[in-house]
Amino acid sequence: MHAVRPTIVSLLLVGAFMVPRLLNANPIADGPDGASESDGASEDAKLIGPVVKDGETQVVDAFKDSDRWIRHDLWVETTFDSDGDGDLDRMHVDVTRPYQTEYEGMQVPVIYVSSPYFAGTAGSGTEFFWDPRQELGAKPPQRTVGPDIERKDQRLIISKRHTSDWVPRGFAVVHSSSPGTGLSDGCPTIGGKNESLAPKAVIDWLCGRATGFLSRDGTEEVTAFWSTGKVGMTGTSYNGTIPLAAATTGVEGLKAIVPVAPNTSYYHYYRSNGLVRAPGGYQGEDIDVLYDYVHSGDPARDEYCDCEVRDKQMGQGMARDTGDYNAFWKSRDYLHQLGDVKAAVLMSHGFNDWNVMPEHSFRIYDALRKQGVPSRIYYHQNGHGGPPPLKMINRWFTHHLLGVDNGIDKEPKAWIVREGDKPEKPTAYDDYPNPKASAVTLHLSGNAPGQGKLSLDRVATASTETLVDNFSFSGESLAQAEYTEHRLMYVTAELKQAVHLSGIARLKIQLASSKPAVNLSAWLVSLPWDVNKKARIHDNIITRGWADPQNRLSLTESSPLIPGRFYSLSFDFQPDDQVIAKGQRIGLMIFASDRDYTLHPDPGTELTVDLSETQLTLPIVGGLAKFREAL
């Protein structure tokens, strides 16, 4: 076997491919006095390269012509065989890079994106989801497995995402299809170890440590001679999970990642504190459904992958009957795999992302900053997706991939897009949660089935209130109801000043159920509810939380309730940073089944709350003094 450069045919090079050398055009960075820093090469040998101004990599005219970009694909050999065919899996990779890398000897840093979605998906038919209509703790009714994916077996260009942003700035952009998808070998494991090792292999290839081949099963090798060996990764949702997965391997050369709304734990995606809880908008989805959704790989290995991964690993490990945390879920929780992370991490998430919820980014950011890994977090008030401004990403990659001292390591750690502001105009804070926030404890007094009170004063007299579970009513309808037996509602006095919440609210509750199992859901809402069609989600819903009282003692083992006996448990709401406007009231809504998120047991279970032993803790900027002023 011998290493070669891709042929002109495989490059799909369009237009003229011999160009005049551009001399004296390699200012990697501007020094403090405006003079460019060079690599010491003689002036007539300088090659065009990234140009940095004001701490950002600039678009360069010589890189802009997409007709002259070099485009080719290859397969990188991994260290694993996840599809059981006896051969090491190879990942399908495409490359888009400036033509100067082919004809002028220029080496460039790399922006790398990996995804299970590039080759197509199974569609969104809910007829192949799990039916949530079941009793709690019961064996779920068997779901129908959907048809095979109509695979897009295209060559060369896996994706064009991010090329227009980065190739004109002097970067190469690389894509790869994750295991078991597209023209990549292997089985999709939805967070399994091969989904960390696959991008690691691609990065190893970019750094000269792994072997790339011109064909899926051939022996002719290809090298990344054009790569500086400095790689940054980004992506949104599943595509944002993979950069974190790669970083957990500690792979050398991965300098920085920008995960946007990443799923950092599949347990936290499909469960909540022991409760089977769907991601928003996908009621009935579970990890095996996602497997079927992305499995677009080699049809010849379908039977093996379906049997070994979906039916055995997932079928035996997902515990949809109990919702318990176990070894299967732990192996797909990146919080437990952060020890080797060296790449600088800029996390991004929406506080109103009810698909991949905002805890996914915060739990990783919080752990990494304590670990000493360079970390920043960017939050906005919208839903799923939403990257940081390109300017912020540019400065992040410029610093970590080019080594430019642009001061980003000295800037604030947290950036929050305030209500009504544009995404490119976030407000800087010293950190998240806001360091000026402190816990304020509120107590409940009842008026069920109407609205009770939420106040600083604890009621001395013991009292209980009861709701009746009924999944037929949505959380939004219950929050707007003035009078209903299907939820308990407790509200503050009208705010005379705005209140800034920043961090994680927590509910400590004492309850009893009329059955051995009951769903427990809680929302924080801003009242009165804004019914205007132009109302934004954060105008009404502050944050949400769910828990299974059966897991009050342990997340790994359910303990049935004795009907009528009171039990205590505590759980967190989703992280938030929101300013509740003057004139609003903060409401705590407690109910059982959350129609869009939890399972749907037969209506009628009674859930009783001991108000004297239940309290809500809010993270308020300015603490107790500020909250007293607002009331």
Description:
The protein is an alpha+beta fold and 631 residues long. Helices cover 18% and strands 26% of the residues. The chain contains 14 helices and 32 strands. Strands 1-11-10-6-7-9-8-12-13-16-17-18-19 form a 13-stranded mixed beta sheet, with helices on both faces. Strands 20, 21, 22, 23, 25, 26, 27, 28, 30, 31 and 32 form an eleven-stranded mixed beta sheet that branches. Strands 2-3 form a two-stranded antiparallel ribbon. Helix 5 (194-206) packs across helix 6 (238-247) and helix 8 (287-294) runs antiparallel to helix 9 (302-317). The longest helix is centred in the middle third of the chain and has 16 residues, at 302-317. The chain is globular, with a radius of gyration of 27 Å. The termini are far apart.
What is the topology?
Blueprint: E1 3-4, H1 8-11, E2 29-30, E3 36-37, E4 51-53, E5 56-58, H2 61-64, E6 70-77, E7 90-97, H3 100-103, E8 108-115, H4 163-166, E9 172-177, H5 194-206, E10 212-213, E11 221-222, E12 227-236, H6 238-247, E13 254-260, H7 266-270, E14 271-272, E15 275-276, H8 287-294, H9 302-317, H10 327-330, E16 344-350, H11 359-371, E17 375-380, H12 390-402, E18 414-416, E19 427-429, E20 437-445, E21 451-455, E22 464-468, H13 475-480, E23 488-491, E24 499-503, E25 506-513, E26 520-527, E27 541-547, E28 567-572, E29 576-580, E30 585-591, E31 606-610, E32 615-621, H14 623-630
Helix pairs in contact: 5-6, 8-9
